[in-house]
Amino acid sequence: MVRRRFSFGLVSRLSSPIYGRSPCSGGIWTPCLGQKRSFMTAKDLVESEEPEKKVTNRINMFSAINQALHTVLDSDPKSYVFGEDVGFGGVFRCTTALRDKFGRHRVFNTPLCEQAIVGFGIGLASMGNRAIAEIQFADYIFPALDQIVNEAAKYRYRSGNLFNCGGLTVRAPYGAVGHGGHYHSQSPEAFFCHVPGIKVVIPRSPSQAKGLLLASIRDPNPVVFFEPKWLYRLAVEEVPVDDYTLPLSSAEVMRKGSDITLVGWGAQLAIMEEACDEVSKLGISCELIDLRTLIPWDKELVEDSVNKTGRLLVSHEAPVTGGFGAEIAASITNSCFLRVQSLTQPQISTPAFS
Q1: What is the pTM of this model?
Q2: Which strands, in side-by-side order, build the sheet including 199-201?
Q3: Where is the Transketolase-like pyrimidine-binding domain (predicted)?
């Protein structure tokens, strides 16, 4: 196995510019026809700061996710974890010991039916509960596409904000590990980024996974939370023991640079960080950004960076066509066109004639 070096920062911004400014995770996403998607302030949510000078343990990503689930179940008696095989810990052990501590009525196995898992979660969340549904592999989330896209995402809008299932979080491990085959290696995040009314979150490290998962579960919108299975055991770092959240819809500058902006998310950040180290030997200064939330994404931060560097490279693990990177490239090209063009115009030479 190739050993990879991880270096994770905690620099962040607390805004979601293209969808309206909002506190950390306290904005209710209310898409309107013919308008930009916007947020309304949720006064009942309390934003917590990013962790600083706290007691930490050095753990891997699946342990950090397990800690987050322990925290939620312990602090909120109306929270529930359910999915295929979660009772014994799940195939990746993210739910280990939860049923023993919190009981079978709050942590329980479901039939092998993704439609039913998400549909049950919608009903549970619409009654004021925190429903944390696990899809065993993201490759099998597609049977639940109708429930997520046509029910969970639209429930608030279709009822005129009388009802919602904002307490729903759908967890799913995604991405390739080198031996999963075509049914256990997909990266389907772009499908859900097309849908107004849900949020899509992908962490890159253990501390990010814990803070972002806690924020997702407490967010007043349904969230699809993809976990890079390649990093479950490989990524290890110091993670705060206490309860904390990280801001959704707020990208993070992992390293500052002046020559080119690199944007990515999830497991791809480790590869991009290595690339930054390699090109630095050639004197190229890279600004590396972790998007963290894909929808609504932090367009303002990326724009600021590209306006500074004049160049943009988006790298992600996904099918060749229709990836979310194309949305970022198109949006930034539209808003930063003159700045990017001024630095990338080809040199035109006059041909010589005899």
Answers
A1: 0.83
A2: 107-109, 79-83, 130-134, 168-174, 223-228, 199-201, 293-295
A3: 59-234
